[in-house]
Amino acid sequence: MSKLKVYFTDHYEVELPEGHRFPMFKYRLLRETLISQKIIQTQQLEPTPLLDDYVLSFVHTEDYIQKVKHSKLERNLERLSGFPQSQKMYLRSLASVCATILATEHALNYGISATISGGTHHAYPDRGEGFCVFNDVAVAINYFKHQKKIKRPFVVDLDVHQGNGTAVIFQNDPDTFTFSFHGEKNYPFRKEKSDFDFGFPPHTEDGTYLFNLQLYLSQYIETHKPDILFYNAGVDVIKQDKLGSLDLSFEGCLERDMMVFYLAQKYSLPVVVVMGGGYAKPIDPTIHAQLNLFKEMNNFEI
Fold it and tell me: If you write DSSP's letter for every residue of 12-81 in order, what string do you get?
């Protein structure tokens, strides 16, 4: 059986107001479909427990953590996050961070892991933005660097939206490389500076995207010499996505994923995969692209 372990957080239920743009139900739907189509086995799934919230302090300020925890955010910060604040939202957001921490531990031991959540790359140390409350990948990186289990992480952020929060968190950390491919006209409209940014014009298709990914990702992995990859595999790059500006096909999106895994295998790098964005409406194309991703993950070994 594949060494892949998949952590999920949809057992922490959050109800959003009717008409809210974020499809919270997609996480449960993906998990159920992975099982019903026998893409992963039940024993590969792990419900995420809540770790002590001190782990959040590896990135986030104590003032911000407490305000989220007790639903005391100022109205402007609540609007920035894109979510109504509540105890349930706090627990769900903490669980997403915990999932990525547990997935990182598994990847370090077995080579590959994933969370059916995560990729909350718009969260800054002192605020959330763009449907992101806490920055799960950044917390996991700083946590495991503190534990001295990783030294030179590499964030491969291929969500259609730039990982602005992640870029700022690691802007003065030469050991952590932030790599972002995104739509240049997509949110956030004021981009931050990653170690490497590549913004594509609207309606970019497979050929241009994949050519540049092959060129630059291999180059920067080679020069940075990382010891682990964190892959934000947002499928909001597909043409059917309602919040993305790019026009990748399902086949192009899968080839993107395969390219990341090929390079990880080539350089013997463990990989932690987080879901990032996906906002097709209806949601079926998002789930289809994610199912392709998980099929590929099951074939991964280092």
Answer: S--PPPTT-SS-TTHHHHHHHHHHHTTSS-GGGEEEPPPPPGGGGGGTS-HHHHHHHHTT---HHHHHHH
> Residue 194: how many CB atoms within 10 A of its CB?
23
Reported confidence tier of residue 301, pLDDT bands at 50, 70, 90: confident
Q: What is the CATH classification number for the domain harbouring 124? A: 3.40.800.20
DSSP-derived pairing of the beta strands 112-116 and 271-274: parallel
CA distance 266 to 168: 29
Pair type for strands 5-8 and 271-274: unpaired
The answer to whether residue 68 is domain-embedded is: yes
**pLDDT the model gives residue 1:** 61
Is 302 domain-assigned?
no
Pairing label, strands 112-116, 45-47: unpaired
| Domain annotation covers residue 192 | yes
AA letter at 230: F
Number of other residues whose CB lies within 10 A of the CB of residue 229: 24
Are residues 278 and 241 in contact, defined by beta-carbon separation less than 8 angstroms? Answer: yes
Question: Is residue 87 within a helix (H) or strand (E), and if so which, with residue range?
Answer: helix 87-110
Segment (H or E) for 259: helix 250-266
Q: Does the N-terminal peptide bond of residue 282 adopt cis geometry, omega within 30 degrees of 0?
A: yes
Give the C-alpha separation, 208 to 255, whole Å: 13
Neighbouring residues of 264: CB distance < 8 A, sequence distance ≥ 6: 229, 270, 271, 300, 302
Which residue segment(s) compose the domain that 172 sits in?
A: 5-297
Q: Which tokens sit at 214?
A: 């092959």
- Whether a cis peptide bond, with omega within 30° of 0, leads into 188 is yes
Residues 252-299: tens digit of each pLDDT? 999 999 999 999 999 999 999 999 999 999 999 999 999 999 999 998
Examine residue 20 and state whether it is found in any structural domain, yes or no.
yes
pTM for the model stands at 0.97
